[in-house]
Amino acid sequence: xxxxxxxxxxxxxxxxxxxxxxxxxxxxRLRPKNSExxxxxxxxxxxxxxxxxxxxxxxxxxxxxxxxxRFDEVFSENASQKRVYESVLEGYNGTVMAxxxxxxxxxxxxxxxxxxxxxxxxxxxxxxxxxLSVMSLETDSVAISFLQxxxxxxxxxxAPEKTNIPIVEDPxxxxxxxxxxxxxxxxxxEHVFQLLQIGEMNRHAANTKMNTESSRSHAxxxxxxxxxxxxxxxxxxxxxxxxxxxxxxxxxLVLKSKLLIVDLAGSERIDKSGSEGHMIEEAKFINLSxxxxxxxINALAxxxxxxxxxxxxxxxxxxxxxxxxxxxxxxxxIGPSSRHFSETSSTIMFGQRAMKIVNTIRIKEE
Length: 366
Ligand code: ADP
Known about the structure:
Elements: E1 8-11, E2 20-23, E3 25-30, H1 35-39, E4 48-51, E5 56-60, E6 66-70, E7 73-75, H2 81-89, E8 95-100, H3 106-110, H4 123-134, E9 141-150, E10 153-156, E11 168-169, E12 176-177, E13 184-185, H5 189-209, E14 218-227, H6 229-233, E15 255-263, H7 277-301, H8 313-317, E16 328-334, H9 341-354, E17 358-361
Parallel strand pairs: 3-7, 3-16, 8-15, 8-16
Antiparallel strand pairs: 1-15, 2-17, 4-5, 5-6, 9-10, 9-13, 9-14, 11-12, 14-15
Helix pairs in contact: 4-5
Bound molecules: adenosine-5'-diphosphate.
Adenosine-5'-diphosphate is lined by residues 31-32, 100, 102-108, 215, 266, 333.
């Protein structure tokens, strides 16, 4: 039974949590073959072979060359959304990110609403449903901000007139916030669907206006939780996966926590040949944010004293997801076809580097 926690950002009157170390948890998910894969003979020409029971994945370059990689979790094309959600959040709430080539299932994994078929719902909806199911909305509050990061500009998906939202960092605690972004308090699951749908529509509209695709931008859902019900009613309700360890009975506290769920832009290299102006800018900025994410991951994996989080807005927003009190999960998504061997291979390497990151849990005494 993993002891999960929604990462505490602010604790009033609580004793320090014991120091500890937690590795970034990395899962790989294989998308089922689609018609395009089948048309290209993916049945006979898949470049990956999974061994979910030993949490291994084999990547076949050709008949003679094959490498095996271990992850924290290996999800086959048959893995359900429920299993992925449970595994990803177990023990590692805080930040969940999906990384991979466009079309490999990042949005399916994190952003799928599943309002027609609940078994299809992705991590965003499941996390909010889970949180709502264990909180008392009389004494606790759950609010969301939903943002898109495109060309180094943060846009509000719940209040689309807000663009260029600044990222603010508390100089004392290092906590990152976006005070200009709408923060909408959630009433119930129906409301969650409504808001996420509005966010999706605004994302689509903004991208149409800018003449780009959603795969070019990062979507970031921030769930803000403020909880005090334990104090009020002494009830034994707990957040999923053992989050109750943050609420020991003797703590008279109001606890604020933050959960980030990020659907990253497609990791494929953008072909700059023949593209002009806007396209070149786009390629540069997507490369900037994902490249700087990669640099931070490398620096963290190597335990470097300097993590270059200031190089891009993406890494500035994710700054408090790395190191410190963070609990971070990364899901890398891949397709089966050997036609995309090079992108699949680079996605797997990205995941392998992230497997080396260890976050040291340090909570400052107040
Ligand atoms: P990405 O966000 O990486 O660009 P999408 O999530 O949009 O990719 O997925 C591309 C297509 O593949 C979508 O039609 C999606 O429904 C489908 N798909 C992706 N992953 C799965 C999966 N695990 N099971 C079923 N369909 C999937």
